[in-house]
Amino acid sequence: MQDLEVFNEDLEYQHAGMIDWLTLKIDLTCLSPEVISKLRKQSARLFRVKADGELDWESFAWDSVRSDTHQVAVRVGGQLHIQGSPARVGLLNNAFGSLDIQYCARKMIHHVAIHMGLGTLPGVELWTCSRIDVTRNYLMQSDAEARQAMEYLKQSSESKQKHSYESNGLYIGKGSALHKGKIYLKGQDARRNQRYKKAVYTEEQLDIADRLLRSEYTLARHKIRRLLADKGISWHQLTPQKLLALHDDYFKDYMSQIEVTDMGNILARLRCVTPTEGQADSAYDCYTRIRMIGFSQAKASFTKTTWHRHIKNLKLAGLSRADLQPINIIPLRKRAIEVSQPLRHWDDVASF
Length: 352
Fold this sequence. Notes:
The protein is an alpha+beta fold. About 35% of the residues lie in helices and about 20% in strands.
């Protein structure tokens, strides 16, 4: 890596999605003794001392490397660890940013090298990665509709991964070492970061953020290892297109692509995607039963084969998990969440 500023605005905002977190590490054997010495001198340490005063253990702690509003964290042990949001390097907030993973990694590595006085650090190919967060923002008509959509999504039935909830969002597979996701209200997150001086937003941007529903897909260490083992794709070879495909595939069951306020529209869509009109009518009857008595009770009224056929057809018609909930829990959405129309930049709002 050259000792030059690597921030390049031309590489930001190219795609309707961004990398919002990277966790990188490199073995200390790849670094010079001088660099290792500088790292250890600048690193805080944790100690555990026994009651008799004897030192039990000692380790290095995570330290923040700050410059104005920019921040990444560093820890030194047998390896050098760097983690944080690439958007926080060179940008005032992490609402939008780059999906170029090599560029994002270089920004973070360079930031640490410059502000810790380390000189040149190895290129991205020598680093390993154990976490990648891929994020997209969807604009709702109002902040009230964003909140309604969030509550609607919280009614989604679980699949292989468990759901958990906070006031601001839905968490899927929390704690998974393979992959996980969350959908939350960006406005609350943006205002909290502004309040704690962790980011800078204009008032106009905060108003827009209140209307944003944000979906974040995390590739954890086992997923990254599988991509390398099964497909020969190293983390730094993940293209923007591949990252978006992984993100959208993960969330496809949670985001509807059709208007659901017109019940007749669902039946029409079913008749377009099922082999026979009878299957369409039966799937529609299943949908109505789900909405009236709930997912679990409706499931118990069908054989396993019939149930899975109905659910498959309903998903082919464009319904998400959140749509398959009792009608008396939450009102139907005013419009679908269009997964094909995420924002790229604040300026995109004018075109919606």
